[in-house]
Specification:
Number of strands: 22
CATH topology of the largest domain: TIM Barrel
CATH class of the largest domain: Alpha Beta
CATH superfamily of the largest domain: Metal-dependent hydrolases
Shape: globular
Distance between the termini: 10 Å
Protein name: Amidohydrolase
Number of domains: 3
Organism: Microlunatus endophyticus
CATH architecture of the largest domain: Alpha-Beta Barrel
Oligomer: single chain
Strand content: 15-25%
GO molecular function, one term: hydrolase activity, acting on carbon-nitrogen (but not peptide) bonds
Strand order of the largest sheet: 5-11-12-13-14-15-17-19
InterPro entries: Amidohydro_3, Metal-dep_hydrolase_composite, Metal_Hydrolase
Radius of gyration: 23 Å
Length: about 500
């Protein structure tokens, strides 16, 4: 790793020039700039220094695989989704023909990231059957909580009695895991490419909530020499029961990973999602007398929290609807365990202060406010709860962390930072502007609470070509990252190893 100086840097919003010394993977000094420094010197030429950005919520394997699927972002009806997939199959050249040939050999055609919450028509098995016949076609929703297929696709997923339309939540999640996947080496190559792109956006680490044996996956990736970013590998109860945790506690380093891969939290999913209309809410959805779906009830969640405590694990609870958040907070209060609520998209005002009181981190994904604002207005318009309450939770003293939820949203920290700062330039109209936050807050919540680089910090930082504090939200999405370092090693930029 060695030691070196990065000279002539500025903190965002400041003109003062600084130098920082990096040694043994840490920042050891941050001092006033001077013309000469001993040893190896990297001249930042007045660029802006920020802490490295960390994605608090990723499904890494799904994100890698998603990059090879047919994109359905922005389609406005089931009929249009069908035509987009058909067009991809009919495309001249290798792409369409290869997909058809693979489908005949047992690899389904997969469309990804549809959002049907406001579609005027209904996605049905029959619609896909009529267009694609016995070619297996599977459609995966943008939130991963529902899916849709033709008969050949359902058969490939082991579903012998096909539903008329979409499958949701538990039945779909089980089916999702049975979609044939590329070999692990191919997936790892796709993911390594994606993470190198993310490092080019200032990303230094992520928390992986893939529903898989994440510890083995990340050990394999590090052994193969993939990009060296930090990973907190989450675990689910099924793998904990199978002994895959190996006695590791949250924060423990996995051997042979250069100190970059650590044990993450136990992940528990207790409700659904907004687009799938299964987020569990206090107020009924307007399209029927239902409140969403509670996947894990109060008593079961308490048991999971107690299990996490026994194993020395933090717990991360997926809760999107306001009623699910209330239940999660009740269970945190009952058990006394600390942890995280993943998403916290809809929260009652009375529950806001409980995050700080109970030591529960709100792990939020601001780009969901871009993807879901119209759906939220339609389905959650009558609720008294707060949508995407970044500012409200901050005012109540909560600890907040940002992330993407990739592949549900792009793995691009500057996209979610912009979405938290000002949504109007992105969606074309103001939406809950009272919940927007400053660029400084958004960067800190995207860097594990670090607003700026200081002596003693890990050597995880990025150099920017523009001052982010001086940019509009739209300009933030296109900000240029000159270089990124993780544990003192350059993973992006002219000095990348």
């Amino acid at each position: 790793m060695g030691a070196y100086w990065v000279v002539d840097v500025r903190r965002p919003g400041e003109e003062q020039r600084l130098d920082l010394h990096v040694a043994d993977g840490r920042v050891t000094e941050v001092v006033d700039h001077q013309e000469a420094r001993p040893g190896r010197v990297i001249d930042a030429d007045g660029r802006w220094l920020i802490p490295g950005l960390f994605d608090g919520h990723v499904h890494a394997t799904q994100y890698a695989i998603d990059r090879s699927r047919i994109g359905l972002v922005g389609v406005s009806s089931a009929a249009e989704a069908v035509e987009v997939v058909a067009a991809a199959l009919d495309r001249p050249g290798q792409d369409g023909g290869a997909r058809r040939a693979a489908a005949r050999d047992g690899v389904p055609v997969v469309g990804a990231r549809f959002r049907d919450g406001l579609w005027p028509d209904v996605p049905t098995t029959r619609l896909l059957d009529e267009r694609f016949g016995d070619l297996p076609v599977i459609m995966v929703s943008g939130d991963l909580h529902c899916g849709w297929a033709n008969r050949a696709g359902w058969s490939m997923l082991g579903i012998t009695e096909p539903p008329e339309g979409v499958l949701r939540e538990k039945l779909w999640m089980d089916a999702l895991g049975r979609i044939p996947q590329p070999r692990s080496g191919s997936t790892d190559e796709l993911l390594d490419t994606a993470l190198r792109e993310a490092a080019g956006r200032g990303l230094v680490g992520l928390r992986d909530f893939e529903f898989a044996d994440n510890l083995s996956s990340w050990e394999r990736r590090r052994a193969a020499g993939g990009i060296g970013i930090r990973v907190q590998a989450g675990i689910i109860a099924e793998y904990l029961a199978a002994g895959n945790a190996r006695g590791l506690r949250t924060g423990d380093v996995l051997a042979g990973t250069d100190g970059l891969v650590t044990m993450g939290p136990l992940k528990v999913l207790i409700d659904g999602s907004l687009n799938t209309r299964t987020a569990y809410c206090h107020t009924p959805y307007p399209d029927g007398d239902h409140y969403g779906e509670l996947v894990v009830d109060h008593d079961s969640l308490v048991a999971q929290m107690q299990l996490a405590r026994q194993h020395g694990l933090e717990i991360a609870v997926h809760a999107i609807g306001d009623r699910a958040n209330t239940i999660a907070l009740d269970c945190f209060e009952e058990t006394g365990i600390r942890g995280r609520i993943e998403h916290a998209q809809l929260v009652l005002p009375a529950d806001l202060p409980r995050f700080a009181q109970l030591g529960v981190t709100a792990s939020m994904q601001p780009w969901h406010a871009i993807d879901d604002w119209e759906i939220a207005g339609h389905y959650w318009g009558r609720t008294a709860a707060i949508n995407f309450g970044f500012a409200s939770l901050a005012a109540a003293g909560a600890t907040i962390e940002f992330g993407s939820d990739a592949p549900v949203a792009p793995l691009d920290p500057w996209g979610w930072i912009a979405a938290a700062v000002d949504r109007e330039p992105i969606i074309g109209r103001p939406w809950h502007a009272e919940e927007q936050v400053s660029v400084r807050q958004a960067i800190a919540w995207s860097a594990l609470g670090r607003a700026e680089v200081r002596a003693g910090d890990p050597g995880d930082f990025a150099l920017l070509d523009q001052d982010p504090y001086a940019l509009s939200a739209k300009e933030l999405t296109a900000i240029e990252v000159h270089a990124t370092a993780v544990a003192g090693r350059w993973v992006h930029g002219p000095d990348a190893e």
